[in-house]
Amino acid sequence: MAQQDPADGRITTALRDGMFLIGIDRPAKLNGFTPVMLRGLAQAYTAFEHELQAHCAVVFAEGPHFTAGLDLPKVAPHLGGNTLLVEEGEIDPFGLRPPFRSKPVVVAVQGICFTFGVELMLAADIVIAASDTRFAQLEVKRGLLPSGGATIRQHGTEHQLGDPAAIDPDSAASPFPEWQKPIFRALGIRRFLFLKGQ
Predict the structure, then answer these.
(1) One digit per residue, pLDDT tens: the chain, 198 residues?
(2) Which residues contact 29 (CB under 8 A, 6 or more apart)?
(3) Structural domain boundaries enclosing 16
(4) 134: exposed, middle or buried (Cβ count in 10 Å: 0-12, 13-18, 19+)
(5) N or C: which end of the chain has fewer CB within 10 A?
(6) How far apart are CA 114 and CA 131, in angstroms?
């Protein structure tokens, strides 16, 4: 079996008291996702779904930041294929194609939570965020469209907030200012909690 390069990061898993812990572990690179980590995430969600003792998954990150998003120099050569993230029969962490997970996922974010991290948040059942978390959908600055379902999941929140500019992709390209955090709160009070000093 080939040895994995530590520079590629990893996704860790552990089962504790019915909770399936999924860890993002590449803090030296702001937990930027590599192809190895993308595959590991889908494999972790699949293992969670099949683990009979797991009742809920908690996705968290090592270090001070959740994720700066995809590590584009490492991921770009693989874009356009169908198996970068999910292979046949695996659970898609974004819930965009079957088979779908049947158990709840909690995502706990802190520090920088950009692009891929926002997509993971919006696909979760519950999000817990430290009060200093910075959110941004930076794809538009790179000429890309968010592809993890954020554009679908954010659709309609402007009606709940009464502010169509709140989800304008151009304004979402900068870190979300404090007034934009209600976008996530509008997704459901049970889904998003801000924790002061955490």
Answers:
(1) 456 787 899 999 999 999 999 999 999 999 999 999 999 999 999 999 999 999 999 999 999 999 999 898 898 787 776 656 788 999 999 888 899 999 999 999 999 999 889 889 888 888 888 878 888 877 666 666 555 555 555 544 333 333 333 334 334 444 554 544 554 544 443 344 555 444
(2) 9, 68, 71
(3) 6-195
(4) middle
(5) N
(6) 15
Nearby residues of 167 by Cβ (< 8 Å), 6 or more positions away: 154, 155, 157, 158, 183
Q: Where are the alpha helices (DSSP H) in the chain?
A: 35-50, 72-75, 116-123, 150-154, 157-161, 182-185
Q: Report how far residue 135's alpha carbon sits from residue 146's, in angstroms, rounded to the nearest whole number.
A: 14
Structural domain contains residue 91: yes
Task: Output the furthest CA–CA distance in the chain (Å, rounded).
Answer: 55
Which residues are paired to 95 by β-bridges? none
Count CB neighbours of 126 within 10 A.
17
Place of tokens 């802190």: 110
Count up the domains in the chain and report the number: 1
In a domain, 1, yes or no: no
In a domain, 190, yes or no: yes
Confirm whether 111 is domain-assigned. Answer: yes
Q: What's the pTM value of the predicted model, to 2 decimals?
A: 0.77
Three-state DSSP class for 74? helix
Pairing of strands 19-25, 10-16: antiparallel
